[in-house]
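Methods — Computational structure assignment.
A single polypeptide chain was analysed. Its primary sequence is given first, followed by the predicted tertiary structure written as structure tokens.
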Amino acid sequence: MMKVYLDNAATTALSPKALDSMMPYLTEIHGNPSSFHAFGRTAKSAVEKAREQVAAAIGALPEEIFFTGGGTESDNTVIMGTAARLRDKGNHIITTAVEHHAVLHACEELEKRGFEVTYLPVDEFGMVTAHQVEEAITDKTILVTVMFANNEVGTIMPITEIGEVCKNRGVYFHTDAVQAVGHVPVDVKAMNIDMLSMSAHKFHGPKGVGALYIRKGIRIPSLIVGGAQEKNRRAGTENVAGIVGMGAAIEEAVLNMEENTQKMLTLRDRLMNSIEARIDGVKLNGHRTDRLPNNVNYSIRYIEGEGILLHLDLNGVAASSGSACTSGSLDPSHVLLAMGLPHEVAHGSVRLTLSENTTQEEIDYTVDVLEKAVKTLRAMSPLYNK
């Protein structure tokens, strides 16, 4: 039985280069970056090098990068911090119905505190338009937060156009780019992005570390207080090894992005074409072309996603039915429901996400397993017309 990992949207394997860069800070170099002595200065220097690597990857300045514990913390910092900083100016936030729960739950919490939130609807592909954003902006709007690429269906939003609208209207624009950074080109200046969230473990860095880009001149309070680290933006002793690993991983990802993208596009299209040719009653979720190069998401009629995942797992294939953060829930995906899928169709979704390490043999094996699983499950389904 072949072992195939196709859940890279949930997390990726740590790259050997990232691991090698981390090892000295896990074994030998143990100084606190805030300490004045040589041990501390060595650790501080490593953090600052990583800051430069992250900044270069997205077209930012090093002083605009602040390290966090991950994408969720970065999202919360922006949303809660902007709300606190600009409450006297306005109480309106604009987001979309298909955001990651790190954004949605933060917005829901602000609603309890008297803020108004507009959840923009999406089309059948999971996409919003810049026109929708512009129409929703009022004189009370203080923040627009729209994800760069959807974590479930892979649809890439028109970020540059949305950024231009926000810039022209004088409203801060934040994007959750956790799924995009390291996989597609990101340029915060050219795209008029004011704030951006990312997470290292989505591009072969370590878990438990992320970063937040905040455009120079924007002041928002820290979500975590108790120290002056990260220029008072995020209190707490830095995760030096994790930060170093993140820097190495993002540099490697950007350096090899073009080559990796072409490889994943070839394999992604092979996977999509094979599924559609060999299994009837399937629906591709997300935009067919404006999507991440490694994302495949299908709804398979007359069966449930949990059953598909179980069969795949029993045959060595790791996949997902949606966001890793909600994989324990039996509720259908909020993303698929927002795209207009009926409950019974949304329940039958499977997400297969590749990496540059995925092989053609693994793709072909996965389709074989998936085809057999669908036949087995449909044979037991009272809904399937045999």
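Note: The mean pLDDT is 95.
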